[in-house]
Amino acid sequence: MDQKRCPHCGKWSSWEMNLDDVCENCGQALGGKDLENQNKRIADKKLNEENWMFNIKDTDSNFIKKAKKVGNFFYTIYMAIITFILWLIAALPG
């Protein structure tokens, strides 16, 4: 177990290297800016998944779900082909 200075009250508190650990003195999170950045990354990732054109939602009809699955399949194939072509271009010079 380590100790970390609380970014809120400035006192030392025991810390188990987890951003969610709280200060023993003031009860605030010891993660500080790192915890805020982690929460922002998680929120951004969720927003990107929801905005993805082939995101399958529970409210979609069966036809729409199947169409999105087909779209995801062809998008994956397309990206694989593009990646292979780029690899081939990079490998040709030697």
Explain how this protein is built.
This protein has 94 residues and is mainly α. It has two helices and two strands. It has a two-stranded antiparallel ribbon with strand order 1-2. The mean pLDDT is 89.
Topology:
Layout: E1 2-5, E2 12-15, H1 33-51, H2 62-91
Which keywords apply here?
two-stranded antiparallel ribbon; single chain; mainly alpha; 2 strands; 94 residues; 52% helix
Low-confidence stretches at least 5 residues in length (pLDDT < 50)? none
Please state the structural category.
mainly alpha
In spatial order, strands of the major sheet run 1-2
Q: Work out the strand percent.
A: 5-15%
Distance between the termini: 51 Å
Annotation, overall tally of beta strands: 2
Rg, nearest Å? 23 Å
Count of helices?
Answer: 2
Order of helices and strands: EEHH
Compute the average pLDDT.
89
Q: Biggest β-sheet: count, sense, barrel?
A: 2 strands, antiparallel
Q: How would you describe the shape?
A: elongated
The helix content is 40-55%
